[in-house]
Write a structure and sequence with these properties.
- With about 400 residues, the chain is mainly α.
- The chain contains 14 helices and 3 strands.
- About 70% of the residues lie in helices and about 5% in strands.
- Helix 1 runs antiparallel to helix 11 and helix 4 packs antiparallel against helix 5.
- The longest helix has about 35 residues.
């Protein structure tokens, strides 16, 4: 694995400058998400927030911030993003630590996942996903360029990953911490480092995860409810059962955008983690198929960008962002369908929550940047080639080769 790399050496002059398919799929997913949020949250917003558009307005404000972030990460050169990365990491750690400070945190259902920033709440674990992906992309790019890289040089990346995941676990956000840990392992694997590092990580990580599950009774209850759904119909499985009823009611064509709202209100917090059930009831199998077609187009274009990006930093970063959005989407849908135990992972572009929307759009901006290519990376590749030719010429071996 030490010499493995799926990043082709392709000059920027032959690289596609933009990816229209990726941009269109992002816009379509965002549009579907805002529409789904409206007809899933209007009843709740009307009763609890004083207006049926209340949650949609909040989502649109977050979207404006998110699109600003998308533009920033889409057009700022990778070299400048890398110089800003230490600041991003420090800000992320500071926000994660702020969740433990009573003056800044906000606790809900026993979990301290949010910080109060001026007039809005923010979930630092969402920012941690993006920051850690960029950090690992930057680290593995530098690691590849080291002539004497070995297993010991990966230790800083392991420690930073452990710090971020541990802080998220300490917030009692087990699902997000586990998800981020798995995304990091995937980046370790695709970056081409020796797989020996995965063995101690698994030896330490698997028992630690098992202990955290056993330590909290509600996590054991969720697993028990998943294994024996008939015994927890009015308890931990209430949302899942209501979700399955809503999905069944959708049929092939769906109940229509307006007719299913009364039923959707029976699912607690349907506008959050179970919004896909509302989308399915309203739009039926046709709506589900439409969503997955667009998601597949997004995934195909995003992963293709990572395979052909001339910058190794951009390639790894784009791969991590695409994997995070795709696998988080699939995990949320699996929870809604009862295929895996209940988690607190939102559905990207759909679930109510400004933090998720902002960071998701920032990730999309980074992928668009990778799709456009990176002039700094191309110049660096050409410089390295020129230096290599120069050395061969001086050694008198270039003509022989």
């Amino acid at each position: 694995m030490a010499g493995y790399s799926f990043y082709p050496d392709k000059p920027l002059s032959q690289y596609k400058k933009s990816d229209t398919g990726l941009i269109v799929s992002i816009i379509l997913l965002w549009g579907l998400g805002v529409g789904a949020l409206y007809f899933c949250s209007s009843a709740y917003s009307g009763k609890m927030l004083g207006g049926e558009f209340a949650l949609v307005k909040r989502q649109l404000v977050a979207s404006l911030v998110g699109f600003a972030g998308l533009a920033f990460f889409a057009f700022v050169p990778f070299s400048k993003i890398r110089r800003l990365l230490p600041v991003l990491m420090l800000v992320t750690v500071a926000l994660l630590l702020a969740t433990f400070v009573p003056a800044f945190n906000e606790e809900r259902n026993g979990a301290k996942r949010w910080v109060k920033l001026l007039f809005f709440r923010f979930q630092p674990s969402e920012l941690a996903k993006f920051a850690l992906i960029l950090y690992l992309a930057n680290f593995f790019d530098k690691y590849q360029k080291q002539a004497d890289n070995d297993e010991r040089s990966v230790f800083p990346a392991v420690m930073v990953m452990t710090l971020f995941v541990s802080l998220i676990f300490a917030e009692k956000d087990f699902s997000t911490g586990l998800f981020l840990f798995l995304i990091c392992l995937l980046l370790f694997f695709i970056s081409g480092i020796k797989t020996l590092w995965l063995i101690p990580m698994a030896v330490i990580g698997i028992p630690a995860l098992a202990m955290m599950i056993v330590w909290e009774p509600y996590r054991m209850e969720r697993i028990a409810g998943y294994l024996h759904p008939e015994q927890f119909g009015q308890g931990v499985n209430y949302q899942t059962n209501a979700s399955l009823r809503a999905i069944s009611a959708g049929g092939f064509w769906g109940q229509g955008i307006g007719s299913g709202l009364a039923k959707l209100s029976s699912i607690p917090e349907v506008q959050a983690d179970y919004i896909f059930a509302g989308w399915t009831e309203a739009m039926g199998f046709v709506g589900v198929a439409l969503y997955f077609v667009i998601l597949c187009v997004f995934a195909y274009r995003a992963f293709k960008v990572s395979f052909y990006c001339p910058s190794r930093f951009g390639a790894i970063g784009a791969f991590g962002c695409a994997a995070a959005i795709l696998f988080q989407s699939l995990a949320n849908v699996a929870v809604v369908c009862g295929a895996i135990p209940s988690t607190g992972i939102p559905l990207p572009f759909f679930s109510a929550g400004g933090s998720s929307m902002i960071i998701t759009l920032c990730m999309c901006g980074f992928m668009i940047n990778a799709a456009r290519g990176d002039e700094d990376a191309d110049e660096e590749l050409n410089f390295e080639k020129d230096e290599e030719i120069k050395v061969l010429n001086e050694a008198g071996e270039y003509e022989r080769l």
